[in-house]
Amino acid sequence: MQLLKEPTAPSYVPVAVHQDSSSTLYAGELEIRLGEGLVLANGRALTLSVREFELLGALAGRAGAIVTREDLYAVVWGGQLRSGDRSVDVYVSKLRGKLELAMPDRRFIHTHPGFGYRFQPQPWGHPAELSRDVHNGAPTD
């Protein structure tokens, strides 16, 4: 059973995430200065809470990989995620909103139901955005 369908021939240029020697992550016009607690979008500082910043660092540091809610909770909150705790989901939603408000032409954080979250900047309308869950037709992103 296939839940996610990947495009066979992408018609977009993916935004690579790279880190320089000063602990700064770059994802196109998004700059994450890990040592300073600063995020710049198109050169403008974003106002993020400590948790949002740590969550962004945890996701961007593993760009392209699906990171489980349990792993994110352990890194950002410390400890083990308890059953029913929606902290990760709430903070991902807040962070996603701030990133997309600052750079509305990009989608940064993608949800993979039952698996976790993936940080991979890409333009809105990318073919992966149109993938559907085979069970209920719901978007997977």
Structural features, described:
It is a single chain. The protein is built from 3 helices and 8 strands, in the order βββββαβααββ. It has about 140 residues and is of the alpha+beta class. The protein has one domain (about 20-130): Arc Repressor Mutant, subunit A. The strands form 2 sheets. Strands 1-2-3-4-5 form a 5-stranded antiparallel sheet, with helices on one face. The chain has a 3-stranded antiparallel sheet with strand order 6-8-7. Helix 1 packs across helix 3. It is globular and about 40 Å long. The model is unreliable at about 1-15 and about 130-140 (pLDDT under 50).
Concise structural overview:
The chain has 141 residues and is α+β, with helices and mostly antiparallel strands. The protein is built from three helices and eight strands; from the N terminus they run βββββαβααββ. Helix 1 packs across helix 3 (87-102).
The number of distinct helices, counting runs of at least 4 residues, comes to 3
Q: What is the strand content?
A: 15-25%
CATH class: Mainly Alpha
Q: Considering the protein shown, what is the CATH homologous superfamily?
A: Winged helix-like DNA-binding domain superfamily/Winged helix DNA-binding domain
Structural class: alpha+beta
Strand order of the largest sheet: 1-2-3-4-5
CATH topology: Arc Repressor Mutant, subunit A
N to C succession of SSEs? EEEEEHEHHEE
Shape: globular
How many strands in all? 8
List low-pLDDT spans: 1-14, 128-140
